[in-house]
Amino acid sequence: MIRHTVAFTLRHPPGSAAEVAFLDDARVLAGLPMVRNFERLRQVSGKNAFRHGFSMEFATQADYDAYDAHPVHVAFVRDRWRPEVADFLELDYVAHAP
Amino acid sequence: MIRHTVAFTLRHPPGSAAEVAFLDDARVLAGLPMVRNFERLRQVSGKNAFRHGFSMEFATQADYDAYDAHPVHVAFVRDRWRPEVADFLELDYVAHAP
């Protein structure tokens, strides 16, 4: 299992309708067949400047690659992510034994 | 629920016995009574320089505060984290509605 996460900040003012619309519309990613456990998150630590996060899981690297190439994901990145996101950091995790 | 995560890199060489020992010994944190879903993670994205991650969840902010103040956590930070960790980023998340 690969957990793909991204912490980010939007160009929109906090609490704005545009912020709400972005977070709502991102749920389109949860509908992709290879995406598991999609979460929309508020980043609440004061030790960094990110305000939001997404987390999702893929069963295999092939599923991750298929997500990256999926037209719905490609369109979301082009039409929403690039114009609306001010800063972000991707972190991908694979679990060790407990 | 608050998910506390930290991405980090150790001073130890990758694959070294000291790296393995640090990751093994960190499991002491999983034994604290307020810590839920403790995970030891490998960071696998090439888009950042972090090599490891921990993730844990707290039911409440009071549980998070109790973890921060717990002698086992305080000792781990003092005796292992500060001397052995080269760089880190904490990200804490609270879930939006799905």
Quick overview:
Two copies of one chain form a homodimer. With 98 residues, chain A is α+β, with helices and mostly antiparallel strands.
Description of the molecule:
Chain A has 98 residues and is an alpha+beta fold. Helix content of chain A is 33%, strand content 36%. Chain A contains 3 helices and 4 strands; from the N terminus they run E-H-E-E-H-H-E. Chain A has a 4-stranded antiparallel beta sheet with strand order 2-3-1-4. In chain A, a hairpin with an 8-residue loop joins strand 2 and strand 3 (52-58). Chain A starts with a strand and ends with a strand. The mean pLDDT of chain A is 97. The interface between A and B is medium-sized, with 28 and 28 residues. Strand 4 of chain A pairs antiparallel with strand 2 (36-43) of chain B, so a sheet runs across the interface.
For the residues shown, what is the average pLDDT of chain A?
A: 97
Distance between the termini of chain A: 14 Å
Most extensive interface = A-B, 28 and 28 residues
Rg over C-alpha atoms of chain A, rounded to the nearest angstrom: 14 Å
Mind describing the biggest β-sheet of chain A?
4 strands, antiparallel
Oligomer: homodimer
Indicate the proportion of strand residues of chain A.
Answer: 35-45%
Structural class of chain A: alpha+beta
Number of helices of chain A: 3
Please trace the helix and strand order of chain A, writing H or E for each element. EHEEHHE
Spatial ordering of strands, largest sheet of chain A: 2-3-1-4
